[in-house]
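Quarterly update from the structural biology core.
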Amino acid sequence: MNTLDKIFSSNNEIKTFAESYIDYLSRVLRNIALDDIERFVDVLLSARERGSTIYFIGNGGSAATASHFANDIAVGTRTYEKPFRVISLCDNQAVITAIANDDGYEKIFSQQLEILLKKDDVVVAISASGNSQNLLTAVDVAKRKEAITIGLTAFDGGKLRRAVDFSVHVPTEQKEYGPAEDAHMILDHLIGSYLIRFVKVH
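Predicted structure, tokenized:
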């Protein structure tokens, strides 16, 4: 029984659940390593300096987070002379369904990276479980092409946390998708808020 199950079983009134959920999410956020956030931002800024492209990938709720990250960093920073070149590979449904239909869902990101990815680009894989095969296959391609790989993970990090160059890990219990994905979105807004201010003074 994970923390959310325990919260619900102790008192299933919505107000009590909401209060406990928010308290728990606050504890989860406080346990994210700030050094990992700093390293993630450093990678994004370095990619901007050298004109590399940053690719975000994920499934389900994490696909939505990947799209949101791409929006907030590429467009939200409002920097055009030296832009962040950021793409979510979750957004072209024609491409995704063609690859899934012809070659399998596990290749929906790796085949796009085979075409687009260059050395020293960045691939950010977002996954609560860390065990999605299409992300792991994409990371394999990225490593072969000498790109930098980052995982945004939760639960125990799964295989993804061990496969990437480094991760920003959200320490939740198994199957706590809500707090995990909440925290990933907060990381998006935290980092986006920082970068939009950083580029104004640099």
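Residues 72 and 192 are 6 Å apart (CA to CA).
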